[in-house]
Amino acid sequence: MSNYFYVAPEQLIRDRAEFAQKGIARGRSIVGAIFDNGVVLVAENPSASLFKISEIYDRIAFAGVGKYNEFDRLREAGIRWADSTGFTYSRGDVDVRALANYYAQHLGDMFTEGQKPLEVEILVAQLGNTTRPTKLYRIAYEGTISDEPRFAVLGGDAETIKSRFAASEDSLETLSLTLKNAVGALAGPDRIIEVGDLEVGILEDRGSRRTFTRLNDDQVSELLR
Amino acid sequence: MGLPLFSASDDPGPSFFHFAQSSGLTPPVSNASAASAHATTVIAVRYDGGVVMVGDRQATGNYIASRDVRKIEAADRFTAIAISGTAARGIEFIRMAQLSFEHYEKMTDTALSLEGKANYLSPIIQRNNLSSPLLVLPLLAGWDGALQVGRIFEYDGAGGCYERFDFSTIGSGTPFAEGTLRLGFNAEMDRDAAIELGALAMYEAGDNDPSTGGPDFVRNLFPMIVTISSEGFQELAPDDVAERFRVINERRTQSGGVAGGSLR
Fold first, then answer.
1. Do B4 and A83 touch (CB under 8 A)?
2. Number of structural domains found in chain A
């Protein structure tokens, strides 16, 4: 038999939160923002193959910060959920809010009941159409879900980046301007992020069913010029 | 359904079909009694820059159930799937294939190779056909981006996958279409010649097989013709298709219903 020591619930939650925050703060941040014609997700990511931003469904994208293996599993579960929901009902019935809620429930469960909380923060974005709004949902490590009206920042340095981005933004801008602002906010005043270290994905209507595109280095340089 | 999370050891990976099976999304197949005729003709012909596919539009039960069915669909931008056999199973099969290819691409961030897609379908066909009388026999054609050629894959009833380097047909009109294709095919055909040959073979099948709908001049409904090339999956405009069948029909009318000594 093992011995149990009493730990106050407040203390337990604090310890777990601290643990998760530490893990998340180790990674680089991500900015997701709505521009005049869609949604752009920007991550600082030196790897060109281990992605932080990904397509979930026709009009839904995913971004994750923190431990790669943990958010990648959430990404896969999101794709499976979306594909099977669309297969069971119809493609138009796949809505980001339901997915965001499932993510929030899972992260919340892991935070209170898991061996350890997940060291991740995720963002799910939906490009709107005539029947659904454009949405950004940020879900934190403990399951807090927030509906972000214009932009969302994930990662350890979120507050600083958020204030830098907010300063440059008041109404919806073009993709090029929004991307410049996002990259500027991620980098801060004394740093320049190389194009090769940027991962950019957008949701934009271009006449086909699937709206997600990963932008390559040339496209990003062109937009940042 | 909730968030489908798996531990690393029982994760179904990027295969949508295996995931769907493990989560009970696909209905179990049972040995119910129903007969199925492969009342259809779909033709695939290789040409120097891709593959032409021609498919009739008629759904046949004990009578003609529909005259404007689409039996060829794009599985993704560079791949087409055609079906023969039980309509319900065929439609489910196409949806499963379309979704599986896209699912794999999203999960792994790489597209499946054409051969990968062809092999992937084998166990799905096998699972359906060996445990149910509601048979489905598909035909897969696509543009192989790695080899820069059009390729055709046909299947037998047990799911065996065979690549064809000339042409392939499925459905009850096969004997009549195949006769025309065997006489008319040559490896150096261009797109237009392949369309012409495919349309002619379809005309023959529609003329001889009661379960294949040939050109319907009364309703202005014609078999569908698509090409899969480096440009992707492209469907010919209805007017273009109508004109090609009108020309064939005109010739046949002049020669009293027979080809008249040459393949035309």
1. no
2. 1
E strands, A87-157, where?
A: 120-126, 135-139, 145-147, 151-154
> Angle B114-129/B87-108 helices, nearest 10 degrees?
140
- Decide if A4 is inside a domain: no
Dump pLDDT digits (tens) for B154-163. 999 899 999 9
The phi and psi torsions of A213 (rounded to 5 degrees) equal -140, 140
Q: Is A54 on the interface with B (CB under 8 A)?
A: yes
Rounded to two decimals, the ipTM of the complex is 0.91
**Which residue from A minimizes the CA distance to B105?**
A55
Q: Out of A76, A79, A87, whose CB is closest to B25?
A: A87
Full domain range(s) for residue A214: 9-224
* b/e map B47-74, b = 16+ CB within 10 Å: bebbbbbbbbbbbbeeeeeeeebebbbb
* CATH code matching the domain that covers B39-253, chosen among 3.40.50.300, 3.40.50.11540, 1.10.3720.10, 3.60.20.10: 3.60.20.10
